[in-house]
Amino acid sequence: LRAVTGSSEGAAASMKLIREFTKGTTFQIQEVTGAFIRLTLAGVVPTSGVMRDFGNLAAGMGRSIEDLALAAFNATTGEMEMLKQFGIRAVQEGDKITVTFDGVTKEIERSGEAVINYLREIGRETFPNALDERLNTLSGAISNAKDAASEFAVSIGEGGVTDVLTQFN
């Protein structure tokens, strides 16, 4: 995170956003962090709104948010193939992209920003509650138990155990 945010402070703020977002999802911190990094590298500022829209689309399609972020990153560079994993067909034609999802075809600009906005729109409009619905399942409860265990381990490390253990090296 420090590499993509440019500072320790930026990494800490990003991790705070990632932790908060992860608490309300079935996604694990590691995959959300990977998605955050991919989106940042694609030129997207991964705000909580962006993460929620992407999370809803990924959850609605039963996929990982990290897979969606990778597909989005690739699409912003003109590689549309991975979008098919999310039911999206995209064909580049000159300075436009014809995208089809769930039988609805539309034309968008051939730009990374337009692709990201299109993906966010699907998450927001087609799957507005997918994260919440997925969270209220047995797998959601198990996922949150894993997150709680990870957060507990981080708390122990931040409480000084990490410093003690690294002094033995």
Walk me through the structure.
With 169 residues, the chain is mainly alpha-helical. It contains eight helices and three strands; from the N terminus they run H-H-H-H-H-E-E-E-H-H-H. Strands 1-2-3 form a three-stranded antiparallel sheet, with helices on one face. Strand 2 (96-101) and strand 3 form a beta hairpin. Helix 2 crosses helix 3 (29-41). The two termini are 25 Å apart. The mean pLDDT is 88.
Helix content: 55-70%
Strand order across the largest sheet: 1-2-3
Low-confidence stretches: none
How many DSSP H or I helices? 8
The SS-based structural class is mainly alpha
Number of strands: 3
Range of strand content: 5-15%
Q: Name the average pLDDT.
A: 88
Assembly context of the chains: single chain
Largest sheet: 3 strands, antiparallel
Tell the overall outline: elongated
Secondary-structure element order, as H and E? HHHHHEEEHHH
Radius of gyration (CA) equals: 18 Å
Q: Cα distance, first to last residue?
A: 25 Å
SSE inventory with pairings:
Elements: H1 2-5, H2 8-23, H3 29-41, H4 48-60, H5 65-76, E1 88-93, E2 96-101, E3 104-109, H6 112-125, H7 130-135, H8 138-167
Antiparallel strand pairs: 1-2, 2-3
Descriptive key words:
single chain, 169 residues, mainly alpha, 3-stranded antiparallel sheet, elongated
Write a brief structural summary:
It is built from eight helices and three strands. It has helices at residues 2-5, 8-23, 29-41, 48-60, 65-76, 112-125, 130-135, 138-167; strands spanning 88-93, 96-101, 104-109.
